[in-house]
Design a protein that fits this description.
Layout lengths: L3 E2 L6 E2 L8 H7 L3 E2 L3 E6 L6 E3 L2 E3 L5 H12 L1 E2 L3 E14 L2 E12 L2 E15 L3 H7 L5 E7 L6 H20 L7 E7 L2 E6 L2 H15 L2 E12 L2 E12 L6 E5 L2 E8 L2 E6 L5 E5 L7 E5 L4 E9 L2 E5 L6 E5 L11 E7 L2 E4 L8
Helix pairs in contact: 4-5
């Protein structure tokens, strides 16, 4: 029963909203406002969008960026609930769009809507990140090297890809300095120039976990800003000394390296048993041969745990303890390596193990 009277229009009402009937309330209520002109600034090089004084990375299409800009510029009444916004765009030229906007919402139990129009002006400006890249800006250099040797091409590619992985991940999180300025390929390795010192350090930490690399930091003073010293950091990122296929001597054992990372794995050549060791504990190990030194030989006989191999240069039989990995029979060809006066039987080996 309508037993209330609206103090504005005098008509009876089921209930009053802010002291008015529904019609009088809606006449004075503004659901949404938007400026007559909405400006959107986009970097023409990377597509980043400027939000206030800051840039944000972006991969969306232009119309999607405009939609987001309109919704951010839209001011809604604080009581609006269950808001739905639809936008219809038309453009008169590539830099000017006209938007018809409809807003539907629930306000204090009343369903209401609003129709608005605005003009979106799109301008293009080079973002801070692209400006820094084009200007050669960098905070750190990661020098990809190897301990006691030159890293091969595959190792360098793997480490550069790892650095790119870290940079991409941090950039996607909104860190604008996460970029690579340039990559220099040198005879002794690869130098990667990075916009962010923290990104460079994170890449080195990940390289240490995945590949057993060690790294050191060397700061260089390059200037001052706001009274504070500004440094560039050089990271010397070093791969382990040994690579798959190397044969090393560690504590008197000959070991064929199968993997070298944070941990080194391989095969004890005398026994044929597996070898596992923390790479940091191999500082005193010495490379004594590699798979390029392997030779063909004939397995003469296999009896229990004793085998005889024909020496490939003297053609005399050599008696050895049978290694655990050997499964051949007498008369078969095998691969061996001769180190000093000692003959070692090699297992079947693949370079990418």
């Amino acid at each position: 029963m309508k037993n209330l009277a609206c103090p504005v229009c005098g008509r009876p009402a089921d209930n009053l909203i802010d002291g008015k009937c529904k019609d009088c309330f809606l006449k004075t209520f503004t659901l949404a406002r938007i400026p007559h002109i909405v400006r959107t600034i986009i970097c023409p090089l990377c597509g980043a969008v400027k939000k206030g004084a800051h840039w944000e990375g972006n991969t969306a299409e232009l119309e999607d960026v405009i939609h987001v800009g309109i919704k951010e510029a839209l001011k809604l009444d604080s009581d609006a609930r269950d808001v739905q916004v639809s936008i219809d765009l038309t453009n008169s030229d590539p830099s000017i769009y006209h938007a018809n906007i409809r807003v539907d919402a629930n306000v204090k139990g009343i369903g209401t809507n609003a129709a608005l129009r605005t003009e979106v002006r799109v301008s293009r400006d080079t973002c801070d990140t692209c400006s820094r890249i084009s200007g050669g800006y960098y905070e750190a250099v990661v020098q990809v090297r190897a301990e006691g040797r030159f890293p091969d091409e595959k190792e360098q590619v793997q480490l550069v890809e790892l650095i790119e992985e870290v940079i991409e991940r941090q950039y996607r999180k909104g860190y604008r300095l996460a970029f690579i300025t340039k990559v220099d390929e040198l005879p002794e390795g690869t130098d990667v120039y990075i916009g962010s010192n923290s990104s460079a350090r994170q890449a080195c930490k990940l390289a240490a976990e995945r590949f057993g690399c060690s790294y050191s930091e060397s700061p260089t003073l390059v200037g001052k800003k706001d009274g504070k010293d500004i440094y560039r950091i050089t990271y010397s990122l070093r791969l382990p000394r040994f690579v798959p296929g190397d044969i090393i001597n560690t504590r008197g054992d000959a070991v064929l390296i199968r993997h070298s990372g944070k941990r080194t794995t391989g095969l004890l050549l005398r026994s044929g048993l597996e070898f596992y060791e923390n790479t940091n504990r191999l500082k005193d190990a010495v490379k004594i041969a590699d798979m390029d030194d392997a030779m063909d030989a004939v397995l003469i006989s296999v009896e229990d745990d004793i085998v005889q191999v024909m020496h490939p240069t003297t053609f005399r039989p050599v008696t050895l303890k049978k290694p655990a990995h050997l499964s051949g029979r007498g008369g078969e060809d095998i691969r061996i390596v001769i180190i000093g006066d000692e003959v070692f039987i090699l297992p079947p080996y693949k370079e990418n193990e």
